[in-house]
Each structure stands twice: as structure tokens, then as C-alpha cells.
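Subject: complex prediction, re-run

Hi both,

The earlier run crashed halfway through, so I resubmitted it with identical inputs.
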Amino acid sequence: MAKKDNRQKSFEESFSRLEKILEKLESDDCSLEETIELYEEGLTLTKFCYDKLNNAELRIKEINKSLKGELGIKEFK
Amino acid sequence: MQESLPQILTVSELNFNIKALLEENFRFVHLIGEISNFKIHSQSGHFYFTLKDPNSQISAVMWRTRNESLLFTPEDGMQIVVKGRITVFPARGGYQIEVWELKPQGIGELQIRFEKLKQKLFEEGLFDEAHKKEIPKFPENAVLVTSRTGAVLHDFVKICKRRYPLLNIYLYPVNVQGISASSSMIEALRNIERAGKIKDLPNIDMIVIARGGGSLEDLWSFNDEKLARIIFSCKIPIISAVGHEVDFTICDFVADLRAPTPSAAAELITPNIKDLIENIDKFSYFSRSFVQSKVETLRNSLREIQGSYYFNRPKDLINDFNQRIDELSKGITGAANNRMSSLKSSVKFYKQTLHHISPRNNLKKGYAIVRKKVDMDELRLLFEFEKITARASNLRKDDEIEIEFYDNKKQAKITN
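This time it finished cleanly. Structure:
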């Protein structure tokens, strides 16, 4: 569960971080070193996001009630 | 005229006769009235209520097998039209109407109830924008509360798959029509919200309540007050996607977001993967060009600085010094060479002079050098040693001497 949270966060965070990086790069007030660092970070994040989007496959599961009345999750269909 | 004896009946016989009479004559009744004392029997699920008008009333029952297909839950005060038959309970001596079909009296009845509830909840602030929770932009886990059958589920999943395959959909099957619909949705929302109630359910980003289009009666379950309050208090953002664009339910008003249709909900909750990829492409392109232009700008200003007069001053100074050092070193070398050649000529001169005054040169003039041989043993040395003798007194008889002349040496012996 925690793992999934991380994964989700990292896509959302990666994506918004990319937007921030671009904003910073656009503004002229960062040093050359910062620029290079931001650019490198951006490249890593870009690759991560591409991978996520290209390899994702929507999963569907069903919440069901067992005979004992306990709620659980099973594969759909 | 003979007086006939009155026919005496037992209570059972009377009630049986009444039952036969009534049930025979009222096999098929349409009745209009207002509901009061409405009750659902908790175990059997049968409806028991009273139908009344200003002057009269009648008991009514609707068996579970009949009321299951009902689209809404009747309430006290509701004007309804029922279809049914009269039945008599001989045991109690009472009669009632057994209802087969139950409808609100005209479309206006449900409409009025809807407006009343809407006004009430609005005044309580359940629809306030301030209470609307933010819908996450990049959901990972969404619960879809809808019917397991029908096009809604299929369309919803298809659109999510196309737009945002990062999503995990958890289907919570519920009834979306009939009197059990609102309670099954209420149960679903409660279970989803309660942590650990559903085993292995991850953190849920949002709940979508969905149902396809239908009449006001079909959608009546979504106008349930209790359901509305559960939606309002739910900590997880809820999207209401009930009916078509034109259908509005209480559920729509109280939810954090209203989608015109279930398909529209799928589009509203998911970012489009194409846009995302395009954005990342844009990022790659722009960030590279920003960095390139930055480096180019810096390189140009560096070149400018390199070429500037002041930046070159130190270099010029160094060059000046180098030149001066070269010049000085040239001067020093020259001076040293001069000195050397003057010394060389002096040496040559002295050499000549020395040559003129050397004793060897004097030998040519007739002088000779006398050397006396020294006895080796005296000095305990093994080689001969000759010592120049300048005086006659140093020589004794029989001393062996060597006389060196200009051209050669001769051995001699002192005789006196």
C-alpha cells in the first residue's frame, strides 16, 4: 500500500516538478551550474514520466462480499 | 306472513361471507390518497401504511415481492395512486387494500418533494462551494460505485483506459434503481471511507457514483436525504455522474463535482495521456533550448570579456616584462662574452710572458739544473727522489747528482 502511494506521488510530483523546472529555466536568474543541474534533473524526470505513461495498463478490480460477510477485493470478471 | 327465524351466523361465517363479498367485488381497484404511518417491516420487507383523504382512511399492504421493483421509497404525506385489490382478514375482522402498483400522483408529486429537499439542504449549506473538496489531478485509485451490469461501467472503464491508464478502478457494485438503491449506496460509501473495512483496499483518491439516464422516478434513489448527508460528510472527494446532462439529482448538488454523464465523469477525473506526453515533449524541447541559449549567451560574453582591452592589460604587461627580460638577458650575455674574450687575451699575454721568463727557457742560455739523489731509506720510501740543489755546500764527496741541460740530462759524481 505504501509502495503504491510512493509510486503515485512520484508521478504527480515528477510532473509538477518538471513544470517548476521549466519555469526556473525560463527565468534568467539561475547560475550556469544551477541550470545544468536543473536540466539534468529534468532529463531524469522526463524519462521516468515517459516510462510510467508508456508502460501503464489500467487495472480494474471488484469489491465483493465473502460468504462470511467480509469485504475484500477480487479481479474483475 | 310467517315470521322467519333470523339466520344466526357465527363470527367466522360472517367474516367469511364479507370476505367473499368484498374480495369478489373489489378484485381490481384504483385508489388515490395520501400516505400516512408508512412502515417497512424490518424482517419481511413488506410495506404497511394507511391511505387517506380528508374524510376517510384504509389500511394498505404492499408485499415485498411487489415493492422490490419500486423506483422510490414512499413517504408519509406523499400523494399516490395505487392499483390493487381488497382483502379481508377474517381473523381480525378487518379489511385492507393489497397494493400491486404504487405511483406518485402525477410527475408533480416527486418534483415537489425534490424541490423541497433541495431547498432544505441548500439552506443547511450542504451545497456550499466552500465544502467542495478538491479533485486530485492525477488519481491513482478510484472507486466506481455503480451497477455491475449495464453500459455505464463499460463506457467509464473504456474512457479511463484510453485517457489515463495509470488509474486503478475499484468497482463497488450497488443497486442504482429501486427502493434498496439508496441504502446500498449509503452502505458502499460508509465501507469505502472506513479504513480497513475492505481488505487490501489502498488509499482512495476519489469515489464516482454513476448511473445511466432515466426518468425522475428511475433516478429517485439519488434524491435520498440520508444519502445526501453521507456524501456531504465523506472525507474522500465524490463525483456524482447520474443520468444525462438534463437530469439533476440531490446527489449532484451535494457531491464535490457533478459530471453531466458517467462518460463525462471519466473524462473529468482523468488527465489525458496525450496531453501529458505532449507536455513532457515540450519540456524536453524547451528545457534543451533554454540551456543551449544560456550556454551560448555565456560563451559569447566570455569571448567579449576575453577580447576586451582591460582584460588583456595583464597579458600585455607580462608580454612587456618578457620582452624586457629578453633584452636584459641579451645584454648580459653580450657583456659576459666581452669579459670572457678580454680575459682570454690577458691569459694569452701572460702565457707568453711566462714562457719568456721560464727556467727552461734560461737553460737555452747555458744554465743547468743540478739535482741530488736522495737515499730512499732516509725517507723510507721505495722510489727515488731528486732534489734541486742550488748550493755547492750541499754536496759532499761521492754524492750522485743529475745535471739537466737544455737538451738532455747527465749523471755525475762529486769528486771533492
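Chain B has four domains: 11-104, 113-128+140-271, 273-319, 352-416.

- K.
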